[in-house]
């Protein structure tokens, strides 16, 4: 029996009308469906009038045994469709492991493109100037989060990230400390009934006194450049405020210097000397 095919199927991020005809056909003809959330998958399949198919869970807690089982289905010639609960798979979900297993097994892998919160937000942002960097969800806390924020702040191109509504205000405030003047878009509940697009500088958006709800996609515009083509830098006062705040939080001077040197594109030695001077 020949090797089956893995279809990576994009599903709507909100509006059910955004499913493609090709995606519907693949879901209808697949032998088995693998889903990040079987409850949501079955609800979509029911809406599409597709029933009687096995739907297996394959989420972030998938074990090697789960992946081996999927590889076994492919080896038996089954046509598998992998879908997440919303959007394009393998953008911010556990699908990478499945794709790697299928590729290692020599199975054909076919993309069924469609809705994507990343591309939807970019298309309405007006903030694209060439390339962009997608960073997914930022770490919640600690050094990993600070390093991720430093990467975002040091990226001159447009940056797209996802955020939990419970952490959106914190993320906007953290970015406002690093890139206060960069233009940004907060895209909330894209394609859904309560879709909302909020524009302004990062500082403007961070100052909003509101509660965030639903799915949030944040687009950070490219770094501003001056007449000489140089990136706009933080003022000396802004840099000193950052250093003073981090020192007050008990962070080590070397750690502060490492982070700021990446963000500012400056000499680590010079920043370290400056941090020591502020501490003294």
Task: Explain how this protein is built.
There is one protein chain. With 280 residues, this protein is α/β, with parallel strands linked by helices. It has three domains: 6-115, 3-Layer(aba) Sandwich (Cobalt-precorrin-4 Transmethylase, domain 1), CATH 3.40.1010; 118-226, Tetrapyrrole methylase, C-terminal domain (Methyltransferase, Cobalt-precorrin-4 Transmethylase, Domain 2); 233-280. The protein is 41% helix and 17% strand. It is built from eleven helices and ten strands. The chain has a five-stranded parallel beta sheet, sandwiched between helices. Strand 6, helix 6 and strand 7 (158-163) form a beta-alpha-beta unit. The chain is elongated, with a radius of gyration of 22 Å. This is Ribosomal RNA small subunit methyltransferase I. Keywords: Cytoplasm, Methyltransferase, rRNA processing, S-adenosyl-L-methionine, Transferase. It is found in: Cytoplasm. InterPro entries: 4pyrrol_Mease, 4pyrrol_Methylase_sf, 4pyrrole_Mease_sub1, 4pyrrole_Mease_sub2, rRNA_ssu_MeTfrase_I. It holds the Pfam family TP_methylase.
Distance between the termini: 74 Å
Radius of gyration: 22 Å
CATH class identity of the largest domain: Alpha Beta
Low-confidence stretches: none
The percent of residues in helical segments reads 40-55%
What's the architecture of the largest domain, going by CATH? Answer: 3-Layer(aba) Sandwich
Mean pLDDT: 89
Strands side by side in the biggest sheet: 3-2-4-1-5
CATH topology of the largest domain: Cobalt-precorrin-4 Transmethylase, domain 1
The domain tally reads 3
Strand content range: 15-25%
Order of helices and strands: EHEHEHEHEHEHEHEEHEHHH
Shape estimate: elongated
Oligomer: single chain
SS field, number of helical segments: 11
CATH homologous superfamily caption of the largest domain: Tetrapyrrole methylase, N-terminal domain
Structural class by sheet pairing and helices: alpha/beta
